[in-house]
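Re-run requested by the PI after the first attempt was lost when the workstation crashed. Everything re-entered from the original request form. Ligand of interest: phosphoenolpyruvate.
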Amino acid sequence: MNTNATLAAHPPAAAIRPPAPELLPSIDALAAELPLSPALAAQVATHRQAVRNILAGRDPRLLVVVGPCSIHDVDAAMDYARRLRALSDQLGDKLLLVMRVYVEKPRTTVGWKGLLYDPALDGSHDMALGLRTARRLMRDIVALGLPVATELLHPMAAGYLEDLLSWAAVGARTTESQIHREMVSGLSLPCGFKNGTDGGTTVAIDAMGAAARGHHHFGVDRHGRPAVLVSEGNADTHLVLRGGRSGPNYHADALDAASNALANAGVSPALMVDCSHANSQKDHRRQIEVLKDVLAQRRAGRHTLRAVMIESHLEEGAQPLCETMRYGVSVTDACLGWQDSEQLLREAAAQL
Ligand SMILES: O=C[C@H](O)[C@H](O)COP(=O)(O)O
Ligand SMILES: C=C(OP(=O)(O)O)C(=O)O
């Protein structure tokens, strides 16, 4: 064995200098740069309460979390938001429309992880720009008068956006994570836990119980310092049914099973059906029949069906990330286009 050659190929650990990490603004610094005015903060508080009232059955409207699978173009997102705002003015007595402004994407393996991670869509990963772009966009959408929803994927990122949100999801891939349950326990907004990718609801119901309790956990404070964070517990959580590997879970037998499990656990009976993902078997047009089925079950007396989720963009379908991307088309899961979405929501409101 040539010892010198081996040493040259594997220098001692002390000789390896990783590049200096790029620093991010603290939560306080970003909030100072892009503050939420007291009037908009009050509006967010009102919207959160409206969401809570629907989920608790005190408000008969249907909560609809609707919008793109992911945000990759802020102009298209604002275009969508303006249309949704106008529709919300017309349908607001029947539907509470909350826009999906999803800036982090969980991936099954690898792929573009969202605006927060790679706002230029080119692998440059300017995450400081991602944070600024996402916070500014959400604030602009709130300023239109719309409530904003997102999936909170990285607990460290949550603090940068939390004050702008009226509802948040923990996704199917992270519902079982203790770290995400701790994160939700410290949020003062309603949150949905999705069933696991295998379709199992137990992990989400366990998550609701865990998030309702207070926790001590590792985190980063508003000044960017590593800290022991102490949460009080969040009782405003609910189950989101998104289907799983064994198929959809919005039919009556699946809803019965979920409702029994929620009752046995003593947690909120409210159900949100995600019309997309495994419930649509990843065919965006099937969201239409899922929503119609859910509305029929609600009309037939299933009063715990209080919320739905729809993936919708300006244009139908999806496209790969490339040089010649089409305006208003999803770059992650395929979405319904605006025309179909508007018609679907008008029909839903008419039936309620
Ligand atoms: O909602 C979006 C996707 O279903 C989720 O991010 C997983 O995406 P992937 O399976 O394409 O990685
Ligand atoms: C990733 C999402 O959903 P799920 O966690 O159900 O796959 C989503 O709603 O964008």
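Saved to the shared folder this time. The chain has one domain: 25-351.
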